[in-house]
Amino acid sequence: MVRVPYVNREDMDAEGQKIYDQIRQDRNSAEVGLQFRAMLNNPKAAGYLTSMGAELRFENSMPDGLKELAIISVARELDSGIEWTGHAVLAARAGISDASIESVRTRKTAEVLTGSEAMVAKFVQELVADKNVSDDTFAAVHGEFGDRGVVDLTLTVAYYTALGLIQIALNLEMEPGRVSTL
């Protein structure tokens, strides 16, 4: 059971409603999802965090497929069914193979992923699970994507890690009618 109330737009003051509307607009969505509605118990902080997320999701210098692979890798590391279920589909649409997606889900990436996919998954695993990125892994990512790319990847991992930790702490639920595919 969720540990804080999901905030409704009509229950917010004018400033909060503006933030609610910005979250909806940033995601081109008719409604604000449950995880963001839980964060709206602190509207200003939620607004800043979700604006960062929109920037990283929609203006990222990383190729879309590798960005989505990074997101599902974070989701897998944190056992986030919410992020996995939403982003595994986006990873597939962005060209990540079903075999690659399944290898992340089953934690068998070394057996399937190669090249850039393996490098991104390794970066995520080192950063999230090991809390360290080796010089070799950093150099490989930096060599392929440059300063902006390695920063975008790092910020993407940080943002989705924050969402995963929020989901854990607040015990957030899947959207009604959705079932985790993790």
Core attributes:
mainly alpha; 2 domains; 9 helices; about 70% helix; about 180 residues; AhpD-like; single chain
What would you say this structure looks like, in words?
It is built from nine helices and no strands. 69% of the residues lie in helices and 0% in strands. Helix 4 packs parallel to helix 8 and helix 4 (64-77) packs across helix 9 (135-170). It has two domains: 9-49, no CATH class; 64-170, Up-down Bundle (AhpD-like), CATH 1.20.1290. The chain has 182 residues and is mainly α. It has helices at 14-26, 34-39, 43-58, 64-77, 81-93, 98-105, 109-112, 115-130, 135-170. The two termini are 19 Å apart. The model has no long low-confidence stretch (mean pLDDT 96).
Could you give the count of β-strands? 0
- Structural class by sheet pairing and helices: mainly alpha
| Name of the level-1 CATH class of the largest domain | Mainly Alpha
Terminal CA distance reads 19 Å
Helix content: 55-70%
The chain-level mean pLDDT equals: 96
* Major sheet attributes: none
**What is the CATH architecture assignment of the largest domain?**
Up-down Bundle
CATH topology assignment of the largest domain: AhpD-like
From the alpha carbons, calculate the radius of gyration and give it in angstroms. Answer: 17 Å
Question: What's the shape?
Answer: globular
Number of helices: 9
* CATH homologous superfamily assignment of the largest domain: AhpD-like
Write down the secondary-structure element order.
HHHHHHHHH
Poorly predicted regions are none
* Beta strand %: under 5%
> What's the number of structural domains?
2
